[in-house]
Amino acid sequence: MTSEEIYRKLEPIIKTYLPEDISAKEINRSSDLTRELNINSAHLVDIILDIEDVFNIEFKNEDMEQLRNVNDAILLIQQKISI
Amino acid sequence: MNSQEILNQLPYSEPFLFVDEIISISAEGINGEYTFKGDAYFYAGHFKNNPVTPGVILTECMAQIGLVCFGIFLINEEQIERVNFALSNTEIDFYIPVFPEEKVKVISEKIYFRFNKLKCKVKMLNAKDEIVAKGTISGMIINNNQQ
C-alpha cells in the first residue's frame, strides 16, 4: 500500500477524534497529533485501535513512543503491513 | 493483590470515597459494593427535603469500583507502581433511583485495557438485584514514573 493510500484511509479516522475547535483542513502529514491537532491521550488510543481494525495490524507499547505526527503513523502502518 | 491492598491504594478519602468492599476481582472484571451513608453531604441539597443519590455520584461510585479499583489491580499485574487516574469518558443510563442507606453492587467487565486506557462495561444493581444504572466508562492510567 502506498503512503498516499494509507493517508486516505487514515485521515477519516483522525477526523473522528478531532476536538471541535480544530478543523479537518488542518490535518496534513506533518500535523503533530497531540500538540497541533489537540487530540488527547485517550482519543489517541482510540485512533490506534481504529487503525488496527482498518489495517488489520497490531501496535505495541513501544510503537506509541514513535508516534508523534501523521507521517509517523503512516510509516508505522507501512512497516506493519509489510511484515 | 488482595482486596484490602487495592482499597489501601485508592486515591480517595471521605467525603468522596464510594467503595466499601471488593467482592471479587480478576483480569477480566471486578465486583464491589458500597452503601450510601444517610448523612452524606449531597443529600442536604439533592433534592430539597427529598434525598436521592445524584446520578453523578452513582457514576462516581461506578468509576471508583469499576475503573479505579480494577485499574489498580490490572497495573499491579504489570508491576507499575505510582499512578494517577484520569476519567476520559462515561456513557451511563439510569433506571432506578437510589436512596440514602441503600447498598449497591457494581459489576464491571473489561472491554479493553491497552496503552494505559481502560474501557469497561459497568452496571450498578440495588439490593433487590435490579439494574440501577449501566453503561461504559473509560479512563487513562497515568504512570507517574514516566513524567
> What would you give as the CATH superfamily of chain B?
Hotdog Thioesterase
Residues in β-strands, percent of chain B:
35-45%
What is the strand tally of chain A? Answer: 0
Question: What are the low-pLDDT stretches of chain B, counting only 5+ consecutive residues below 50?
Answer: none
- CATH architecture title of chain B: Roll
Mean pLDDT of chain B: 93
The helix content of chain A, as a percent range, equals 55-70%
Question: Residue-averaged pLDDT of chain A, rounded?
Answer: 93
- Domains counted in the coordinates of chain A: how many? 1
Task: Give the strand order of the largest sheet of chain B, numbering strands 1, 2, ... along the chain.
Answer: 1-2-4-5-6-3
Protein name (chain B): Beta-hydroxyacyl-ACP dehydratase
Pfam families (chain B): FabA
Keywords (chain B): Lyase
GO molecular function (chain B): lyase activity
List keywords for this structure.
heterodimer, A: 83 residues, mainly alpha, Non-ribosomal Peptide Synthetase Peptidyl Carrier Protein, Chain A, B: 147 residues, alpha+beta, 6-stranded antiparallel β-sheet, 2 helices
In brief:
The complex is a heterodimer of chains A (83) and B (147). Chain A is an all-alpha fold.
Explain what the structure shows.
- The complex is a heterodimer of chains A (83) and B (147).
- With 83 residues, chain A is mainly α.
- Chain A has a single domain (3-82), classed as ACP-like (Non-ribosomal Peptide Synthetase Peptidyl Carrier Protein, Chain A, Orthogonal Bundle), CATH 1.10.1200.10.
- Chain A has 4 helices and no strands.
- Chain A has helices spanning 3-16, 41-55, 61-66, 70-82.
- In chain A, α1 (3-16) crosses α2 and α1 packs across α4.
- In chain A, 20% of the residues are buried.
- Chain B contains 2 helices and 6 strands, in the order αββαββββ.
- The radius of gyration of chain B is 15 Å and the shape is globular.
- With 147 residues, chain B is an alpha+beta fold.
- Chain B has helices spanning 3-9, 55-77; strands at residues 21-25, 29-35, 83-94, 103-114, 117-125, 131-143.
- The mean pLDDT of chain B is 93.
- Chain B has one domain: Hotdog Thioesterase (Thiol Ester Dehydrase, Chain A), CATH 3.10.129.10.
- Chain B has a 6-stranded antiparallel sheet, with helices on one face.
- The longest helix of chain B has 23 residues, at 55-77.
- Chains A and B meet through α2 of A and β3 and β6 of B.
- Chain A: InterPro entries: ACP-like_sf, PP-bd_ACP.
- Chain A: This is Acyl carrier protein.
- Chain A: Residues 1-81 form the Carrier domain.
